[in-house]
């Protein structure tokens, strides 16, 4: 037996007639359903006899909005085996927006928009010092850090992933008056984790936009978005990376000495 749990977006509730039709003798997509509802959130649980891994199964029901939430967090759909709950998979969804590339990232009571498109690591082997300097001094670039990834925070119930990084060097200081060796939190969508491929205890060059800064009280969290410049910074002595390291060190020294000269 397969269980499908559909968490609804905040402020929405399911159409009961549609759920009854899913379990009717005519349709019989599911043999039973139940709803779990609080003051603002609802979850629909569908009980299926089986679910094919070869043929697509489409289940649908209408939902109605009862509350207008300013920021909608993505909601989760989870499928698992009733007898072996550890065999499960999940995905997140949200309403389409006028700008489909925008989602909301929320931390505690603070929310902000973040671009759905994942940041991409740069092809570092062909970057020269002059190109790095030009990128660091582009309009809108607020900060440039050399940072070491210490740990990664993930949760099956959250659509976001947090990277805890220690700042090794402040190559270009910006709005956040961060100091070397302090810890900073970077956030992106969980779906970006595999494509980013960031590894714990590895070091990275990160250039972020002013719009990437997200202030919570007196601290800043940095959003890794489409415009974030991100590349791996090899360790000293890495095989075949001497030229790249020379370019990075030259870039870092130049920026600390000259900055962005107008």
TrEMBL record:
<protein>
    <submittedName>
        <fullName>Complement C3-like</fullName>
    </submittedName>
</protein>
<dbReference type="InterPro" id="IPR036595">
    <property type="entry name" value="A-macroglobulin_rcpt-bd_sf"/>
</dbReference>
<dbReference type="InterPro" id="IPR001134">
    <property type="entry name" value="Netrin_domain"/>
</dbReference>
<dbReference type="Pfam" id="PF07677">
    <property type="entry name" value="A2M_recep"/>
</dbReference>
<keyword id="KW-0964">Secreted</keyword>
<feature type="domain" description="NTR">
    <location>
        <begin position="118"/>
        <end position="260"/>
    </location>
</feature>
<dbReference type="InterPro" id="IPR050473">
    <property type="entry name" value="A2M/Complement_sys"/>
</dbReference>
<keyword id="KW-1015">Disulfide bond</keyword>
<dbReference type="InterPro" id="IPR008993">
    <property type="entry name" value="TIMP-like_OB-fold"/>
</dbReference>
<dbReference type="GO" id="GO:0005576">
    <property type="term" value="C:extracellular region"/>
</dbReference>
<dbReference type="Pfam" id="PF01759">
    <property type="entry name" value="NTR"/>
</dbReference>
<dbReference type="InterPro" id="IPR018933">
    <property type="entry name" value="Netrin_module_non-TIMP"/>
</dbReference>
<dbReference type="InterPro" id="IPR009048">
    <property type="entry name" value="A-macroglobulin_rcpt-bd"/>
</dbReference>
